[in-house]
Write a structure and sequence with these properties.
heterodimer, A: alpha+beta, 8-stranded antiparallel barrel, 25 strands, about 20% helix, elongated, B: mainly alpha
Amino acid sequence: MGTDNPDLKALKCSKCGGDLVKSYRTEYDDEEEENVSIPTAKCSACGQEYNQKTEEYYGVFADDLSSDRDNSVFRLGIKGTLKDIEYEIIGRIRYQDEDEWEKSTWDEWFAVSADGTYHYFVEEDGEVHSYEDYTPGSIDLESDPGSIEFEGKKISRDEAYVGRIVFAEGELPWKPEIGEPATMYDFRKDGVKYTIEHSEDEVSITRGEKISYKDVVNAFGGEKEKGRYRETMTMRTTYRRRAFVYMAGCAVAFILAAVSCLNSSPVAGIMEKRTDLAANTVITENGQSMYQSEVLFGPFELKKGDALYNAQVSVNESVQKLSLEWQSFRLLLVPGDRLLKAANGRMTPAALRDVFDEVDALTEPVECYAMSGDFWDEEGHDDEGYWHESDLSLDDDFVLEKPGSYYAYLELTSQKPRSAQAVEVKLERSSSFRYYIIIIVILASLGFYNRAKARSYNAMPFAMSNEG
Amino acid sequence: MIRSILIAALLMGGGFALSTFNVGYSTAGEKYISKHREERKTLRPGYYYGRAGYGGFRGGK
């Protein structure tokens, strides 16, 4: 059938007898959220359209839907032995799911076993199922409009789908026609898979199980198919192993990152001793008046050298809220000995104020690390309405070269007068984990890529599901 | 398989080394001091040394 039996095709318009041709109509697809072209059969004489719910449609599109019909291990006349039973393939019907306007086909291969009984191999979506005829203890397809009954099991009619014949060949139990519909139910009962095919004048009930392509290829395949199957399975195994190695590495990197992330300890006593050097001194920059405060914290001990520390400066809103204003800060980490030398041994507020007044101009820097930033609080309106955003905390990592006694100098500049007590400085010993994050991303990408390849690699000329 | 083990091991080793030796972080110590000492040598007397990070809200930007 198909191209082999053109006399069975319904290629004429049932309305006017005109020739049917392929056509497409454009529809908006809600799921795709774009216009899609949907194939239809159209009469070249009267313009009548036939969609995929009509036999005429399949008369026009049958060849397209069966163009890959030779891509299978099964072929007419081929013999093979499965579970010690020899089968001969004698026919095949290809169905298309009526609900789909894209190609969605499956093949039902008809076989006879050595004892003369019919057997069916259904090939769909890269899987093969083996079915045999089954006579149920009871079945009722008529009495309930909402469901059918099969050996006491109710099956909703909503589960039914319609297959349309698009190709047939060989010796078949009946004479199929292109576009002929069959209503089908696939379901499981007591762990066994059953199929009911209900066509216009016949009901066929089969039960079966999934069989592996390995068994199918060994039974029905030639050397070429067997070689391609071996190549496919070898490559899938290789990709799967690679994926496992990368994902295992990813897990190790994750653990290392988590350990590093949790492995931090605060430096105690940073803000225990404080010397206020200035409070809301009015300064002018670029014609703008602003308020500057200066605080010196310390001394405090940083006990580990050549180690990573995290400095955090934040607004403590329980002391004073930052409301619709900004505040800039600069934090300098000052070694105790350098400060003592810069202040000529006089650690009085006045002497320290003199040092920090000129801190940026000292030819010999007094600090060994600097960090700066802005806190802000803003509100406004945009397309989505009112918004209110703020940034009240900043932090930075640095490596401390030498352990010892240190001071933290904090310079605050604000739009409005603010309490210097409302800004907190914290230091903590931390461990680097950012490189592990990069490694996790790289290894996870390699892992997912190889896992995808392990599922998709296929040297066979047809789809084959993952059965490794 | 061996290649993937090597790649994973190299990446893990690299990440571990970069993390252990704190590569890529700013340094608080002589490195900072030397850099700023050299920068300040070029300053003219009375020049106000620009502060990194300032210029956002304070500059009215």
